[in-house]
């Protein structure tokens, strides 16, 4: 399967990925799929500490909108993977974030400077979209390591 970076059609970047654990069709999500959005909370931890649990229902644009927009300027062949970007909510103060850059930007607006550090070698990030029966996508559990 090939994933393409869609925002810049003049720079297609074929990257080989194995999405079998994470890719789901809307029918596989059942009640967690509504209005073109995944209606689940995304639990995010950094080094075992809570970082956020934003909910997918607040996406500004549903996947139907994202696909229609992308299809205006490029062919979307079978197997094309569409990503929505980070999960964020208007009530970020209580639900936290799923993106360090977003959190740092919020901190700069609120206090004039960022407080959340960027990740360092050895840091661990865990993400899981939580449904009734656990995560339909599986968990992302990654440690930051130096390139070989």
Automatic annotation (TrEMBL):
InterPro entries from the UniProt entry: Fumarylacetoacetase-like_C, Fumarylacetoacetase_C_sf
Domain Fumarylacetoacetase-like C-terminal: 25-144
Molecular function in Gene Ontology: hydrolase activity
Keyword line: Hydrolase
A Pfam family that the UniProt record links to this protein: FAA_hydrolase
Gene3D superfamilies: Fumarylacetoacetase-like, C-terminal domain
Protein name, as recorded: Fumarylacetoacetate hydrolase family protein
Species in which this protein is naturally found: Sphingobium limneticum
